[in-house]
Amino acid sequence: MTTSPPTTVDPDTFAERLGTFYAVGRWSAVNDDLPWTPAPRSLPCMWRYANLRPFVLEAAEFVKGDAAALRVLTHLNPGHREYEAACGHLYSGLQALKPHESMTCHRHAASAVRFVHEGHGGWTAVDGDRIEVGAGDVVITPSRRWHEHGNDADEGLVIWQDLTNDPLVNTLGANFFELHPDGTHLPTTPRRDTHATWGGLLLPDTRRRHEGSPLYSYPWEKCREALENAARAGHHDPHDGVVLEYADPATGGPVTPTTGCRLQLLRAGERTRTHRRTGAVVYVVAEGTGTTTIEGTDFEWSAGDTFCVPSWARHHHTNRSGTGEAVLFSADESPLLRALGLYAEDAGPFDGS
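Request: output the structure for the sequence above.
Response:
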């Protein structure tokens, strides 16, 4: 088959004419769609707990009933305010539970990590395991597991931070959401104690495959003690300080297939070396005060604050206190990037930072 040249060649109208057939010349978008280095839309950003907490308290007074299940203040990134992700494909938001309030049992395709900021009397139940939670605790809700939450205290709010992969699941067109027909799954689900089974030094047979961590609760006291023990043992990374990973005890891998969590300690006055890696990271300050420098911009933080480091952004941390330690909790996309063969890290030569 032979082809003849077009009767009209008009570069000025080419894109418009082609667009009517839902097509585009790739050369015209090469800088946007084919960047030479990682070019995330997300920007470095900080959300101060002291600024948002009053709004959490205010929302608790008028967002009630069924709407209370979504009484969450979403952290929006200035690089894409229309796309509800704090950074990359990680969602982050603050949720409050009022005294004697409980949420209807539900399940969804997205997985969730929850970091508790404050309050007592809070609980979450996952797949039959009803877990009491307190400040600093981390709770995992794997994909498609029935779960529900509540606050048994007579006074005071329980405030925790939701960190989920909803943006990723929605982008892939793979989300599902379902309410439990009875409103709660606890009476009809065998009672479990996942921490008693999976939280010790000796573990059950782990040869079977798991879709997510069978351990749903990581109590603050034990995690903080593990961090101190690691520090005394001399485990130290020049780029992250003393850093430990929240692990799936059945596999030794991340707590969810797409999101990893870490806890890191910065010694008094410590300044880490600069590095960068693919995949977004959302940090929650668990303890202390410090500064994280991201691509040359300083973000000063204190306990309760949240900040993010976009993919491939150079950064380092500084503990501003000369006497006290600082502790950062983080959720990151490294498991997703590793599974896709796209994880990369660049420490670079030591540059004094």
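The two ends are 64 Å apart (CA to CA).
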